[in-house]
Amino acid sequence: MDTSKDRLSTKPKQISWLPIVLVVVLLAVLFWVMYQFKGEQRFAVVKLFGKGDAINFSKNYGYVQFPSNEKNYGALLAEKGDVLSFNDAVISFNDVTNDSLEIDDSGDSLVFVNGNVNTIIIAGKANLIPWFQKMRRRTIDNLETIDFRSKIPASYIPYLKKIAHLKPNTALVFEENGSQIIIEDYIKKSNFFKPLFIRVSLKQNEFPLLAHWKTAEYLHLNLLDTVVTKSLPVMPALKQCIINGGDTKYMNAAFFKNNPQLEKVSLFACLSDYAILKPLENMEQLTITNFGCKGDLAALKNKFPKLSVLIVSGVFTNIDLLGNYKNIRWLGLPENTSQKQFNTITAQLSNLQVLELKGSDSVKNLKALQQLPNLRGLVIIDTITDKQSLYALKELRYLSVPDRNKTDSTYVQTLKKSLPGSIIVPNTGACMGSGWLLLLMPAVFLFSLVFPRKFLKKYFKKNNKNGTFRANKTDIQTNQKSSA
Question: Residues 22, 27, 28, 30: what is their CA dihedral angle, to the nearest 10 degrees?
Fold first, then answer.
């Protein structure tokens, strides 16, 4: 008998083409985005909640050091591998997905980040034994740093040995006065760790102590001499070196000669020239900050072909040389950059992805920015006199502009309407940024423009009723979440 059920079972099934088309289009968009953003670095706005000052030592923005409290937060522009600091706490930014950090350093012995123990402080005034006795493996899952501020009590040794077994690469900090004595005490009593990061305050005659850490990849050195004539010892694994010498007026040209493998260098000092950089042929990132004196960029001429990040803060001569670095992706211009130099350098560096303008009152016309097709991040610390030019930068993914008064606030709101695809944050130091990755591949954003959610829901509902495409509400929500 030819029943209706038989007729239904023998009828050819209709192929639902729309899901296939959606997948093909999405793949095409992804390939297009990958091509457009090839070689692009991943930068993030990192929010730091807590009471104190935050700074990115690796990049040293002119605007990132500011107070935070319960209501406001500090926000740093950072990329993977940057060294951040909040008060005395050191934070290595290696997890770019964790870009919101709530910091509690109110105690004498522990610093918490997002509710987890980040730093243990060993100081003579505090007794850590009760805490050590309760310590479990999960207690130190997020431990990054041990800060030694005094000699180590003998009763701490078994616990430090246990921590070293579980977290051998824990960062070590020795910054107190008399660091040499504390370091020697550590080496004698508890030399269990193989740290990747070292932060120390030393005089040049104490440099040989650094040779002890063969595994260190990051060194943050606070120089205690105004004149430095000695070189750093050989540190074979060293990749990044941050030199903080606020009172340092001279550094030996051979300072880095034993570590030519360095890839990232940040210099904070009052130097007239930068001959110390000459041995560093593998350098990919250079941050130079001058304190109260005029520097000379002549040492950069025809050198460092691998540089992709070059941030210069302060007053300098030979600024025009910055235009020779065709591979630069992130550039910070000195505060005495002229309008002519700005126009010339931006014309020469057409591959720029991030640009910082820090304190140059001479740069009043920003039209040259429209000639940078790959510009995705822009930081302007100066007063903006050419507001109209920014409206045309439709490809920006991140824009930081001054917000010091009501007029600035109104302009920020206007920019947000004009540049809907950009993360726009004020750089006053309060409530700055959304915490999103900068330069994030906007595949989902583009996909949502091509196929609005209302259309998709209407399609799913219709086909579910006809029995051709069965997807319940939970499945749709799950798919939407996974896409996002």
Answer: 120
Burial profile 89-100: b = 16 or more Cβ within 10 angstroms, e = fewer: bbbbbeebeebe
What is the mean pLDDT of the segment spanning 320-331? 92
Mark 16-47 as b/e (b = at least 16 C-beta within 10 Å): eeeeeeeeeebeebeeeeeeebeebbebbbbb
Distance between CA atoms of residues 23 and 338, nearest Å: 50
Alpha helix segments (H runs only) across 223-338: none
Nearest residue to 356 (alpha-carbon basis) of 373, 342, 374: 342
Beta pairing partners, 112 = 104, 117
Where residue 12 falls among pLDDT bands split at 50, 70, 90?
low
Are 220 and 242 in contact by the 8 Å Cβ rule? The answer is yes
Q: Is 452 exposed, middle or buried (0-12, 13-18, 19+ CB in 10 A)?
A: exposed
| Fold type of domain 45-441 | 3.80.10
With DSSP H G I counted as helix, E B as strand and the rest as coil, what are the percentages for the chain, rounded to 5?
A: 30, 25, 45
What's the whole-model pTM score? 0.76
Domain ranges for the chain: 16-37+445-483, 45-441
Q: What is d(CA 212, CA 202) in angstroms, rounded to the nearest whole number?
A: 14
Q: Is the pLDDT of residue 144 over 50?
A: yes
- Contact (CB, 8 A) for 306 and 284: yes
pLDDT surpasses 50 at 452: no
Q: Record the tokens describing residue 464, joined without a space.
A: 């579910």
Element housing 9 (H / E)? helix 4-10
Strand partners, 355: 331, 378
With H, G, I as helix, E, B as strand and everything else as coil, classify residue 318. Answer: coil
Token pair of 184 as six digits:
């020697």
Q: Which residues contact 260 (CB under 8 A, 6 or more apart)?
A: 279, 280, 281, 282
In whole angstroms, what is the distance from residue 434 CA to residue 100 CA? 9
Q: How far is CA 56 from CA 82, 129, 196, 309, 449, in A?
A: 7, 33, 18, 14, 36
**Stretch 447-463: mean pLDDT:** 41
Q: Residues 185-216: pLDDT tens digits?
A: 999 998 999 999 999 999 999 999 999 999 99
Residue 447 pLDDT grade (very low, low, confident, very high; cuts 50, 70, 90)? very low
